[in-house]
Design a protein that fits this description.
Layout: H1 21-35, E1 42-47, E2 52-55, E3 64-68, E4 73-81, E5 85-91, E6 94-99, E7 103-105, H2 114-122, H3 125-145, H4 163-166, E8 173-187, E9 190-206, E10 214-222, H5 228-233, E11 238-253, E12 258-279, E13 282-305, E14 308-318, E15 322-333
Length: 334
């Protein structure tokens, strides 16, 4: 019987206790701080001024989409358009452009560029008066038409500068994926590697979790045990494994139908293997349960065929050992 990797007793087949809880907490807090910062592609904010005008394009002469009341919750782009406008989303399919002086980032996140500081000083009173007049005109028109919804024109909005290139940044996606995983684990006194094909579900997009701007999360499942257990113990093994991640992420458009995204966050592996071997000429069976927590980083591209997209991404995992994976999946907006 090939049993040279079992030293002294079968107890060495059992997984070691996890000692990296403090390290995981540190990695989670670090990733939360980094990806919840203003470097995100989108941030949550409030409308600051009453009767704030939303424009179809990022300039003051553009058509008006609607006006928003002070305190309205919204999502803003990180990018500043024409040095004076943020792209704003305040509801499903309700997207436009708003002056940077009309919005206030939550948690006092402020745009610190010299361009914005200069524009804040140079914004003239005539433009503010124009905003107020336009807002009052919209309210009057709504009352005359009996329209109770202040966003009645937003559903018709489909244009805007770079609109076709960045709509996907504001959508949430759910999909299935197939992942090739170069799986590794430390067992039987060795670090062993075997390629496996995992299947799973994936969620990503803004406000997947309400208090985070952009999240990429999912899990993968494998319904069999690695063959190296049979190779070294002499009996077929069975079992299953789960891989799960929760990444704080960001995304950006690379064209009208292409999106790039990346992220970093905590990672979990759970595996349960049922193995057997001969001990004193008697077959003994054991259940090996292993839980490992660590971190992961991912980089990916998505190409859109409305309404679905094809997504591919590379992931690198750190736990008791390190390994990589490549995922290919189909996604639907929700």
């Amino acid at each position: 019987m090939p049993s040279k990797f079992i030293y002294g007793s079968l107890t060495e087949l059992k997984p070691k206790k996890m000692h990296n809880k403090n390290g995981l907490l540190y990695l989670f807090l670090l990733s939360l701080f980094f990806f919840s910062s203003p470097t995100m592609a989108q941030v949550r904010a409030n409308v600051f001024n009453d009767q704030a005008i939303v424009y179809k394009e990022p300039h003051f002469d553009a058509d008006v989409v609607t006006s928003l009341k002070a305190g309205k919750k919204c999502i803003l782009s990180k990018k500043l358009y024409n040095q004076a406008f943020y792209k704003i989303k305040w509801g499903k399919n309700k997207i436009g452009y708003i002056a940077d002086t009309d919005v206030d980032f939550k948690n006092h996140w402020r745009h610190q560029s010299s361009q914005k500081n200069s524009l804040d000083k140079n914004l003239n009173k005539n433009q503010k008066s124009k905003n107020q007049e336009l807002g009052q005109a919209l309210d009057t028109e709504a009352e005359q038409e009996g329209a109770a919804d202040p966003f009645r024109n937003a559903e018709e909005f489909e244009g805007g500068a770079d609109q076709s290139q960045s709509n996907y940044e504001w959508k949430r996606f759910l999909g299935f994926e197939s992942s090739w995983v170069a799986f590794k684990e430390k067992t039987m006194g060795k670090e062993l590697r075997e390629d496996h094909n995992y299947f799973g579900l994936r969620w990503r997009g803004p406000e997947v979790v309400s208090w985070l701007s952009y999240v990429d999360t999912g899990f993968k499942y494998l319904g069999k045990a690695p063959q190296y257990y049979e190779k070294y113990l002499g009996y077929p093994a069975s079992g299953y494994s789960f891989l799960a991640h929760f990444a704080m992420a960001t995304s950006s458009s690379m064209g009208k139908k292409t999106q790039f995204f990346y992220g970093f966050g905590p990672f979990l592996r759970y595996s349960q293997w049922n193995v057997s071997q001969l001990v004193n000429s008697v077959e003994k069976s054991y259940q090996l349960t292993d839980v490992k927590m660590g971190a992961m980083v991912l980089f990916g591209l998505a190409y859109f065929f409305d309404p679905i997209s094809i997504r591919g991404d590379f992931q690198f995992h750190w736990e008791s050992t390190t390994y990589s994976s490549f995922a290919l999946g189909l996604e639907w907006p929700y």
